[in-house]
């Protein structure tokens, strides 16, 4: 369609939606844009025909006397000037209108500036991607050369954006904080760790490994290799807060993605899977450590429950990736693992607190024992109350509904996690964050937001791009080589592997009695393998408590050994467990298409509705 047609239709001041036809077909002028439609849609009213006639008459008058050169053709992308005649100059379409405009502007444009511009264009032409297209069947050398042509494009453009953003972020930090953003400062070290771990995760993905593997390794190297050990300048309070915030992002994403139907069906299995392997591994670690490490029984069980927790920071993102790949959704396997993981962490942390209180006689023993379940209950109640509130606040027709829902669910989860720590009720934080997102997502589903099309989940996924390298980089930086130096490392490794072996076996048998097949049971046992975040959180607690109580050198040595074994468990099990989940999930779990999942959920809802109706009929008959 000629630009002149568009211009004259616009000048005709027609209605917002007008149909128009010419030799090329039927066109619709909608909001000043021409859209071609099928010729069968020619359904013109009398008023519309009058508009067309006026517009066409005006168009015909302006096109009188226009002569087109025989060699020139009107193609898509060529523009017909108001003075009509089209001809080609240096491969470009020109019109008399253009020539007249250039003649009028000749005194201003032709001169030194024009010649300088032309010479710059000729000089830069070899570096332009537009004038040097990649030929078909190009070699790797040609592709590499083309990748660096201007303007930046492809992977080079992405890297340029990242580098520019990093430099701008550092400049802002330096302008605000001064020395803290210079080498040796806290913010400079955090920024370098973030960038390096992001690159490490990308390289790990290229090697077909989970991103957290590369991030953990980079974090460990930035803490322990001389001359590049910038992670030692990160303040412990900042490291702890950033890890906690990243874990909250992870828990919110997990809560939004939980399947309520599968969770209801597997509720008993979730509790069983969270508790039984935890207590069995604790016993399997405590007994050998008494004989191999010469620990007292209170310290044996402190070490046991440090090692008995699986890591939400490793299991949850791995299961979210499995869920995104639509693996195991027919049996609710990702939901089972995510829900049981949080409960397992609460059990381990609570039991560790009990034996810590016994070892250092802090507080009443009875209160310490019931403290764990009370904290878990408090977190669930808080999550339910705030989650139900988010069904109605903000209003479902609010223009900024995505922003406010994201802000409220993330802010409420942060308050649950950090507020519980401030109130010394740390067991309530993780479950509260998970419960807020889960309950809120149930109400949002009824309002039309599904798991696959949840804008809040999409925003939290963007947050995870930043917080993932921070979480795993800081966890890798928590492992210090000096903590691994000791005479009992071999015995500590033996205790660790004894517990891991029994945990795998018991986890496999725990899921018997479900509809999981043999491969799926093996996968569930493998997913209960990695340790990281809980060990990084409570591993140093015994040693720090011993120092705070001015304990003797023997007690300090026991705390140091627990810290060492916890660091070894992170270094060994986190990357191996994540890699094992990523490699076995496609082979052991069934991948279901989206349509099949929707049909299964509809069938479950129909069956539930039928059960409710049958119960209602039975109740009515009993009344009669």
Automatic annotation (TrEMBL):
Residues 600-624 are annotated as: Disordered. Residues 197-576 form the Cation/H+ exchanger transmembrane domain. The keyword Coiled coil applies. The keyword DNA-binding does not apply. GO terms for biological process: proton transmembrane transport. Residues 42-69 form a coiled coil. GO terms for molecular function: antiporter activity. Keywords: Coiled coil, Membrane, Transmembrane, Transmembrane helix. This is Sodium/hydrogen exchanger 9B2-like. It comes from Lingula anatina. The gene is LOC106171527.
């Amino acid at each position: 369609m000629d630009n002149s047609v568009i211009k004259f239709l616009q000048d005709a001041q027609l209605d917002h939606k007008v149909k128009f036809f010419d030799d090329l077909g039927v066109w619709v002028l909608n909001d000043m844009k021409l859209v071609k439609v099928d010729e069968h849609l020619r359904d013109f009213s009398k008023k519309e025909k009058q508009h067309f006639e006026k517009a066409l008459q005006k168009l015909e008058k302006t096109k009188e006397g226009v002569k087109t050169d025989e060699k020139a053709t009107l193609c898509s992308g060529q523009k017909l000037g108001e003075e009509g005649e089209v001809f080609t100059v240096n491969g470009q379409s020109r019109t008399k209108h253009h020539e007249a405009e250039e003649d009028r502007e000749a005194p201003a444009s032709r001169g030194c500036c024009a010649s300088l511009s032309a010479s710059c264009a000729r000089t830069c032409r070899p570096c332009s991607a537009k004038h040097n297209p990649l030929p078909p069947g190009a070699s790797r050398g040609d592709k590499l050369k083309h990748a660096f042509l201007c303007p930046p494009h492809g992977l080079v453009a992405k890297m340029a954006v990242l580098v520019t953003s990093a430099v701008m972020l550092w400049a802002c930090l330096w302008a605000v904080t001064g020395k803290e953003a210079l080498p040796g400062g806290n913010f400079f070290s955090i920024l370098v760790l973030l960038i390096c771990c992001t690159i490490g995760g990308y390289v790990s993905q290229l090697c077909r490994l989970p991103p957290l593997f590369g991030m953990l390794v980079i974090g460990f190297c930035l803490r322990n290799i001389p001359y590049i050990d910038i992670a030692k300048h990160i303040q412990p309070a900042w490291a702890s807060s950033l890890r906690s915030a990243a874990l909250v992002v992870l828990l919110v994403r997990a809560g939004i993605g939980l399947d309520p139907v599968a969770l209801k069906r597997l509720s008993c299995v979730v509790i069983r899977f969270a508790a039984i392997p935890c207590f069995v591994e604790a016993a399997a670690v405590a007994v050998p450590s008494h004989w191999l490490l010469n620990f007292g029984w209170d310290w044996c069980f402190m070490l046991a429950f440090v090692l008995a927790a699986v890591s939400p920071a490793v299991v949850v993102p791995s299961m979210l990736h499995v869920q995104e790949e639509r693996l195991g959704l027919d049996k609710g396997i990702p939901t089972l693992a995510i829900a049981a993981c949080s409960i397992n962490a609460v059990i381990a942390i609570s039991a560790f607190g009990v034996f810590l209180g016994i070892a250092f006689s802090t507080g009443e023993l009875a209160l310490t024992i019931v403290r764990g379940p009370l904290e878990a209950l408090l977190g669930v109640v808080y999550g339910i109350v705030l989650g139900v509130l988010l069904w109605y606040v903000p209003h479902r027709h609010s223009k900024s509904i995505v922003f406010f829902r994201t802000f409220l669910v993330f802010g409420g989860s942060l308050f649950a996690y950090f507020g519980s720590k401030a109130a010394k009720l740390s067991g309530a934080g993780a479950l509260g964050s998970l419960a807020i997102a889960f309950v809120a997502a149930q109400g949002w589903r009824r309002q039309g937001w599904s798991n696959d099309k949840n804008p809040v989940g999409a925003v939290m996924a963007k947050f995870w791009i930043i917080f993932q390298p921070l979480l795993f980089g800081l966890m890798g930086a928590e492992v210090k080589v000096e903590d691994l130096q000791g005479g009992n490392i071999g015995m500590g490794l033996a205790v660790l592997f004894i517990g891991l072996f029994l945990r795998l076996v018991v986890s496999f048998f725990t899921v018997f009695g479900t509809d999981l097949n043999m491969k799926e049971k093996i996968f569930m046992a493998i997913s209960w393998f990695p340790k990281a975040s809980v060990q990084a959180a409570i591993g140093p607690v015994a040693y720090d408590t011993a120092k705070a109580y001015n304990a003797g050198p023997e007690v300090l040595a026991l705390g140091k050994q627990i810290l060492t074994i916890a660091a070894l468990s992170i270094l060994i099990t986190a990357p191996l467990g994540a890699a094992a989940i990523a490699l076995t999930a496609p082979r052991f779990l069934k991948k279901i298409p989206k349509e099949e999942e929707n049909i299964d959920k509809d069938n479950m809802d129909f069956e539930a509705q039928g059960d409710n109706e049958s119960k209602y009929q039975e109740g009515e008959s009993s009344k009669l």
